[in-house]
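<instruction>
Derive structure tokens from the sequence
<entry> Chain with its tokenised backbone below:
===
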Amino acid sequence: MTTSAIELTGDGRHGTGAPVVSFGNVNKSYGSVHAVRELDFQLFPGETVALLGPNGAGKSSTLDLLLGLRNADSGTVEVFGTSPQQAIVRGKVGAMLQSGGLMEDVTVREIVRLACDLHPRAYPAEQVMETAGITEIADRMVNKLSGGQEQRVRFALATAGPNELIVLDEPTTGMDVTVRQAFWGAMREQAQAGRTVLFATHYLEEADAIADRVIVLHRGRVLADGSAAEIKAKAGARRIVFDLEGHIDERTLRGLPCLAAVEVSGRTVRIQSHDADATVHALYGLGLYPRNLEVAGLGLEQAFIAITDAATAEEGGDR
């Protein structure tokens, strides 16, 4: 099966108006490594989009191409109908990268003011710091910040003006729970103002809770593109959790019909099944009596693993 067989959408269009970002049959290689292959998708105004994929899926290369840090070998990358570099010069794009981009021998206030001075349509620096929640550390040297504080400063730099596209690479790394909640609250406000937010993350619970659209990359191609609910539904499995008393014969459990996966932890059994009704019926048919039985759809993380593992298996495993 090819990757197109498990895509969730036809034309990838999820928003209205002219596309903010367009990737058209984009290819990018580094020597013999194909980082991006025939990549096609569009982003639209007001969308909050999570970019997911296992290591080596092409997420970083995609963001580099989008931000004009790399050039495609073939195909087209357009941002607001022009090149990424031109869109950035016009003050339409703000980026928050996972590392780098911070001068050390300056205060937080100084680096934010510099970003505002350079932005063609900047907000007042004090407003930017307040929005990013860094007013209380404004006089601290950048090289004295914690990892979470550095991320909040990067957020301030990405929102120094009314950027219509905000690109975030692992934005909440190092942030505690309270700061994460405040950060995503600010991002919701950006989306409600009509701006497009694209973020790459390994925190799949964030993608599930925040994004109204999820793009899954696999080996440089779009493997799935849809809402989190669509991706969970299309994973084709449901989650069954229950407790068993006495000896648990894992071999017997693995003989149940329609299984995708089985995990036994102490007295608790966790199953992924392509037909939960058939699996539970067979479970009782074996004379087993599960307690605290729960049947639910897969979470986004489980669905993500299921569809990427299935794609890898169909393509012949690792190469």
User: Anything to note?
Assistant: The radius of gyration is 23 Å. Residues 177-192 form the longest helix (16 residues).
